[in-house]
Amino acid sequence: MIKDFSDMPEEELLKRAIENDIINLRDIQLKYEMNEREKYLKQHKYTIWSDEKRGKLCTYLPDDSKKRGIRLVRRNTKEELDNCIIEYYKKQENEPTVRMIFDTYIEEKLKYKEIKKQSYDKYRNNFTRFFDNSYYNMADRKMKYITEDSLEEFIKTIIVKQELTHKAFSDFKILIRGIFKYAKKKKYTSISITNFLGDLDISRNSYKKVIKRDEDEVFSEEEIPKILGYLRAENDIRSLGLLLSFETGMRIGELSALKYSDIHSKKLYNIDVIKNYISIERTEVKIKDENGKSVVVVRYYPKTKAGVRNVIISEKALQTIENIKKINPDGEYLFMYNNKRIQGRAFNKKLGRVCDNLNIAKRSTHKIRKTYGTTLMDCGVDDSVVAEMMGHRSIETTMKFYYRSNKSEKNKISQIEKAIGDI
After folding, report:
1. Whose CA, among 191, 203, 313, 340, lies 20 to 30 Å from 141?
2. How many CA atoms lie within 13 A of 164 on its CB side?
3. pTM for the whole thing?
4. HSE-up (13 A, CA, CB side) for residue 383
C-alpha cells in the first residue's frame, strides 16, 4: 500500500527525502550559491569587454572617489572578474545608500499594506524632490557615513534651496524619520532619528511664508447666492455637482465617486423626524500604474482616519439630487457623461468657467468645502457636528485649516459698530 504524504509538513518531507537519498544536500548548496552569484551579477549594469593587448577582461565598477564616479577593473579570466563584481555588490549590500534603504523601506510598507498605492507614489515623488537633486544629492550617499552634522546640514540646505513652507517640511520630515528609523532597525546607522529631530533647531524664519487671504480661501457671503443661482439656472450635470458640493461640503473626489446607493433616508427612533444623509464610502484618487503612468481610479474607503462618515443633507440638497436623477437616472454613479464617470478635474474646470462668467475670482472646488465648513460654524452648528460633517477627527482641524471669515465689508462694519456700541 502506498502511503499518502499529502498532509505531511514540508520540513518532514524534506528530512525523509534527504534520508532516502532523493535529494542531495550538496546539490542544494551548489544551486543556492549559483543563485546568489546570479543575484549580484544581475546588479552589474556596465559592459564587460576584452582588452586583447593585455589579455584581460575589463569592466567598470562605481567609485565615488573617482572624477567620473567609476573605476576600471581588469582580471585574467571571466570567473575572476565575476568574483570581483560579486565582492563589490556584496559589500554594497552591507553598506547601502540612502536610495537603496528607501527602496526597500517603501516596498515593504506597500507589501504589508501599511500604506496605500497613492501614498506610495507620493513618497517616491517626494524622495526624488528632496533627496535626489543636483545641489545636495543625499540619495546616493552611504548611510554608514552619514553623521548627525551632515544630516542637519542636508535638511537646512533643502529648506532654504527649495524654499519649503512649514507644511512642505512636514512631508520631508516624514521621509527622513521613516528612512532613518528603518536604517537603525537594520543596523545601518546608529543615529536615533527621534532624538535627532526632537533636538533639531530650525528657525521659523527659515521657512517660506505663505500668506493666505480670507477672500482667496472661501467664497464670500455676497458671492455665494450669485454662484448658487447661476448653477441652478444652468441645471446641467456638472453645475448640479458643484451645487451639491456647496450643500454637503464633500471633497470633490468623494463627489465624483458618489453612487445612488450612498443616499439614505431613515426615520429616527421614537420621534417624527426623517434623517436624510449621504454615506461617504469611496473617493477618487490618482495613482501610477505598472508602467509609471498616472491614472485616476475610485478607492473604496474614505480619505481620512476619521472613517466612513454620514453627511446630513438638507431639503435643498435632496431637490438637487432629484434634479440629477432626471438627467442621469440609470448611471452607476450620480455624475456621468456619455456613460463615463465625471472626474474631479472636470468639476474644477466647470467652476473656473462659472467664476469667469460671474466675473469673480477663480477658486478651486476645495474652496467650496472651506466655505461649507465656515458656514456651519458661523451658523452656530455644534463643534462636534461640524467635525463629523467635515470628516475631521477634531474641530481643531476644521478651525485651523477650514474656517475663514467670508462676511461682506458692510456686515463686518455693522458687527463692529454693534459690538462697540454696546460697550
Report:
1. 203
2. 22
3. 0.68
4. 7
Residues contacting residue 339 through CB under 8 Å, at least 6 positions apart: 331
**What is the C-alpha separation between 366 and 238, in angstroms, rounded?**
16
Residues 215, 219, 224, 226, Cα dihedral to 10°? 70
According to DSSP, residue 142 is labeled B
What DSSP string describes 255-274?
HHT--GGGEEEEEPTTSS-E
Extract the C-alpha cell encoding 148.
Answer: 548627525
Q: What is the pLDDT of residue 147?
A: 95
Q: What is the pLDDT of residue 417?
A: 65
Residue 139 sits at φ, ψ, to 5 deg, of -55, -40
Q: Regarding predicted confidence, which is higher, 307 or 225?
A: 225
In three-state secondary structure terms, 243 is: helix
Buried b (16+ CB within 10 A) or exposed e, 254-273: bbbbbbeebbeeeeeeeeee
Kindly tell me if the per-residue pLDDT of 5 is higher than 60: no
Which letter does DSSP use for residue 277 in this model?
E
Q: What is the pLDDT of residues 325-341, one digit of tens each?
A: 999 999 999 999 999 99
CA distance 224 to 47: 66
